[in-house]
Design goal:
Blueprint lengths: L6 H19 L9 H5 L26 H15 L5 H13 L7 H7 L8 H9 L12 H8 L3 H12 L6 H18 L8 H5 L4 H11 L15 H14 L3 H9 L5 H16 L6 H4 L3 E2 L9 E2 H11 L18 E4 L2 E4 L1 H5 L6 E4 L12 E3 L11 H17 L4 E4 L5 H15 L3 H11 L8 H13 L7
Parallel strand pairs: 4-7, 5-6, 5-7
Antiparallel strand pairs: 1-2, 3-4
Bound molecules: magnesium ion.
The site of magnesium ion has 6 residues, from helix 3 and helix 14.
């Protein structure tokens, strides 16, 4: 985690991180505490990961739930309309609810199926029931938090309140969404969201401030919660407690899922914030790569990691990149090291399907391979979290090799990023020095590219950290 991390890494990390939390927590929803760690006492980096699917609703491994489905409806509405159109967001929600999504919050369903106009439905439900402080407005905030972040504190807090109020008439739920928007704005700018709590609380409507200040106090722990984490206050309180307590993205998410209860939603909120703080490269690739899901009532489009990354960039005002690698001559696969093959993008795409593919570039259309990890490395000198990504890739490779998989490492050209990982693998497994590993790979893979000085620097740091002792 560095201050110099490019904003785009944080933006992608926020949207992908929230969806990862949602999918990771979904199998454990409404369960007792401690389930994730009981089932996975150590990181599960082989073919079967902590993205295990199941639960009472029978999710597929890596499948996201209503939290992300609703977030995608907000996101696509913002992008399609180039700004907030609340009636349109509500119409998208209603179409979704009418399609009977497998998971939908009680308050959300009641409001969206009431048949009342968008601008009165939630308020009328709240006036009637007196209950509307569930976490259903908070869980879908990430896209709008990205969208409004560039407009500043007041604009983003106001936008949060208005979108929350579409389904949650209790203003306290809106204040929670407003706080979360502001914390996300600060995190996306490279600041510490923990430092942003107090100034954000000062902007909360007075009658709601104390209750929010209580759950966001640095001394608050989940044991202090006075209601279940289906309510809005402990949801944000638990997410912030995990962010204060966890050392990296994976630990933050493990902490919240292990709290039990509304695990998908609390992990979704924590994952959005942690993704903004630790960046896209801080999200374990075994989790991000498994992400997928559809949005009921809105076509058959299957949303996957690359779609979420593109959408995140669009929400932040970046030009939509339609990624088409064009026609490139196929290189590989060739076995460069024992059990480790190398290729360029097309060589990997059309390779035998039993390869476990380690992808180090954007893909355009996804591969058909069953086992694929997509790591976030750019072919330039701006990977602020290169050490973290490299460690993650090497650990996964070791676990997959231990299970007997043939590994296929590739990037777009098969030269620089592929070469980085092959060289690092040799240093790790054979205890080679960096230049020894470079010579070894160069003799067996003529496509090796050495133009990224930051990659060589990362190898030097790797040599300092694990001089051959840390063998998988
Ligand atoms: Mg859910």
């Amino acid at each position: 985690m560095t201050q110099s991390m490019h904003r785009s890494h944080r933006v992608a990390g926020a949207l992908v991180g929230s969806a990862v939390g949602d999918a990771l927590g979904a199998p454990f929803e409404f369960g007792p505490p401690g389930q994730l760690t009981a089932r996975f006492p150590v990181p599960a980096r082989g073919a079967r990961t902590e993205m295990c699917g199941g639960g009472s609703l029978g999710w597929a491994p890596g499948e996201f739930t209503d939290d992300t489905q609703m977030a995608l409806l907000v996101a696509t509405s913002l992008v399609d309309n180039a700004g907030p159109d609340l009636a349109d967001v509500f119409a998208r929600f209603t179409r979704w609810a009418d399609a009977n999504p497998p998971d939908i919050g009680n308050q959300t369903r009641a409001v969206l199926s009431s048949g009342r106009p968008w601008d009165v439905a939630a308020a009328e439900h709240f006036a009637r029931s007196g209950h509307a402080a569930g976490n259903g407005g908070l869980m879908r905030t990430t896209p709008a938090a990205i969208w409004f972040s560039r407009a500043g504190t007041e604009a983003t807090m106001d936008g949060a309140r208005r979108i929350s109020a579409l389904t949650h008439g209790d203003p306290s739920a809106g204040e929670g969404a407003a706080i979360l928007h502001e914390l996300m704005r600060v995190a996306l700018e490279g600041g510490d969201p923990l430092d942003a709590v107090e100034p954000a609380l000062a902007l909360v409507a007075e009658e709601h401030r104390d209750r929010w200040a209580t759950v966001l106090d640095p001394a608050w722990t989940p044991a202090d919660a006075t209601e279940s984490n289906g309510a809005v206050w402990p949801t944000l309180g638990q997410a912030m407690w995990a962010l204060r307590t966890g050392r990296d993205f994976a630990e933050v998410l493990r902490l919240v899922v292990d709290l039990g209860g509304d695990t998908d939603t609390v992990a979704c909120v924590a994952g959005g914030l942690a993704g903004a703080v630790f960046g896209m490269g801080g999200i374990p690739s075994r989790w991000a790569s498994a992400l997928h899901g559809r949005v009921p009532g809105h076509g058959e489009k299957l949303w996957r990691l690359a779609d979420l990354q593109q959408l995140a960039a669009a929400l932040d005002g970046a030009a939509q990149q339609s990624y088409d690698p064009g026609v490139i001559p196929r290189i590989g696969p060739a076995e460069v090291l024992p059990g480790i093959w190398a290729a360029n993008l097309d060589g990997a795409r059309y390779s035998e399907q039993d390869f476990a593919v380690i992808s180090l570039c954007r893909l355009g259309e996804p591969f058909e391979h069953e086992l694929q990890r997509m790591a976030y490395v750019a072919d330039n000198e701006h990977n602020s979290d290169l050490d973290v990504v490299l460690a993650d890739v090497l650990e996964d490779m070791a676990a997959l090799r231990a299970e007997g998989h043939r590994l296929l490492v590739h990037c777009h050209g098969g030269a620089s990023r592929t070469g980085l990982v092959l060289r690092a693998w040799l240093m790790r497994t054979e205890g080679m020095a960096a230049d020894e590993a470079t010579a070894h790979v160069a003799a067996r893979w003529p496509h090796l590219g050495l133009w990224n000085a930051s990659f060589t620097a990362a190898l030097d740091r790797l040599a300092v950290q694990s001089p051959g002792a840390d063998r998988p």
